[in-house]
Design a protein that fits this description.
alpha/beta, globular
């Protein structure tokens, strides 16, 4: 299924409904990292919107149901050279928060997830943005792999625990909590601190 294609998501939702009869949990987790704005927004943002749109009527039939939308710590902060990705994750955050407010008091809970560095191959498998050299890409991958410390299994368990508690906002990883606090304390100047850490990830171990 191509989450960026509305017809594909609509058909998938109908297929799930016809075969299983019910849905209690929807997790919108498709995501990519790249400088191609349109392609990235179609997957990261519109894929989330389409998933909610076509599964929400099915979820509303349940006594208790839940929607989980994956944003990122880059939906809390916006690093340099991550314009497209951050824009998409801020969009997911805004959509999710508005949706939660609209559904408040009903049977469908809504959570926005902000993972820190998760040990997945997203950086190594991502497309190379226009104008990005192979050496710079390798440097970015190396930096990501040093900073990504949370195993996917631990992240999944944290999300499910958040669903059970109907938490509106789920942060994953110590780095996510640290970034969230830093952004709250220095909303206009957090990048000065984070840029130093990203330049030398080993500094966080001292």
């Amino acid at each position: 299924m191509d989450v960026a294609e509305e017809a594909s998501v609509s058909a998938f939702a109908e297929d799930v409904r016809s075969r299983h009869g019910r849905v209690t949990l929807l997790i919108n987790n498709a995501g990519v990292s790249l400088h191609d704005f349109r392609w990235l927004m179609n997957i990261n943002f519109w894929g989330t919107v389409f998933g909610a749109k076509y599964f929400l009527p099915i979820l509303k039939r349940e006594k208790h149901a839940h929607i989980v939308n994956l944003s990122s710590v880059f939906g809390i902060i916006a690093p340099a050279e991550e314009c497209a990705y951050s824009a998409s994750k801020f969009a997911v955050r805004g959509f999710t928060e508005a949706l939660r407010h609209e559904l408040a008091g009903g049977n469908v809970g809504v959570s926005c997830v902000h993972p820190g560095g998760i040990q997945t191959p997203i950086a190594r498998r991502s497309r190379i943005g226009a104008g990005t050299s192979e050496s710079k890409r390798e440097k970015n991958i190396e930096r990501f792999e040093k900073l990504a410390r949370t195993p996917p299994e631990k992240a999944a368990a944290r999300i499910l625990r958040g669903v059970e508690r109907r938490e509106p906002r789920i942060l994953i990883g110590t780095d996510a909590y640290q970034i969230d606090i830093l952004q709250r304390l220095r909303p206009a100047s957090y990048w000065k601190t984070l840029a130093k850490i990203l330049e030398d990830p080993s500094a966080t171990n001292n």
